[in-house]
Amino acid sequence: MAGLLLRRLGALILTLLVASVVIFGALYLAPGDPATLLVGNKATPAGLQHVRELYRLDDPVHVRYWHWLTGALRGDLGESFTYKQSVWSLIEGRIGTSVLLIGYASVLVLVLGIASGIAGGLHHRAGAAITVVTGVGLATPTYVAAIFLITAFAVELGWFPVFGDGAGLPDRLYHLTLPAAALALTSTAFVAQMTKAAVREEALREHVECARSRGLGEGVIVRRHVLRNALIPITTVAGLTVAGFVAGTVVVEQAFRLDGIGSLLVQATASRDFALVQGICLLLVVVFVVVNVGVDLVNAALDPRLQARRSA
């Protein structure tokens, strides 16, 4: 297990290093002067000089990258050109909403997706109904789902607020119910489909039939022989789905006017606030890669073959 952990840690560091190069170098791939790109064509010479000093644009590229990378490792992501604040302080003020939204959507996916997938895998009649429902869910884009939920449950029925993220945990969860549902809809359908397929495949294996022939109860068979072996693909799909929410928040936060990281990224992109875009993109990549590594380690702990090799 220690060797696996070291390999995954090495892969994580290498991935983050490559991602940092891509994120930092994106500005310099665009044609024209980077300072002009940041402040616009109507910038004064004094304004251009200020931007060059702020972002060290007169230094060689490798020097600028090293300065940015070492600053990021210390928690210093630079200063926002638009807001005149440190990038990290802006992220810190918005990250709570995004974390709560992702956590809420993840709970919906894990509970509804896995539960319905298990029911569909074990019961054929339920499986047909779940296939139809999840097919509709998979075909519905997140933004369309957001518009439908706002129209149906906020405007027409008035059950939930239209916009905003609330104040206090209960009120914030109430405000985030529709955004979390919109974010989780397609992913819940996908997890349900994959869970159903994994459970059905395990339920048809020979060792399950042998367990039935020995007179074991159906509950014991499902727990010990079906669900335990189906956990690995289910965990992989669920983990990757949760990691994908990091990028999916951009659409949902814009649709529901939430004050989170996704909406901040859109605003920073529109205002060409490059330091802020760099900081948010780096944070999103870090979260995505860390979640993927965590999924790999959980799968290694669940895989009976790895357990056998460790005990040998």
Automatic annotation (TrEMBL):
InterPro entries referenced in this protein's UniProt entry, alphabetically: BPD_transp_1_N, MetI-like, MetI-like_sf
Keywords: Cell membrane, Membrane, Transmembrane, Transmembrane helix, Transport
Transmembrane regions: 12-30, 95-115, 127-153, 173-192, 231-256, 276-302
Membrane topology per record: Multi-pass membrane protein
Subcellular location: Cell membrane
Alphabetized Pfam families for the sequence: BPD_transp_1 (PF00528), BPD_transp_1_N (PF19300)
Keyword Metal-binding: no
Record flagged with keyword Zinc: no
Domain ABC transmembrane type-1: 95-295
SUPFAM superfamilies tied to this protein: MetI-like
Domain of life the protein comes from: Bacteria
Family: Belongs to the binding-protein-dependent transport system permease family.
Name recorded for this polypeptide: ABC transporter permease
The organism of origin for this protein: Nonomuraea typhae
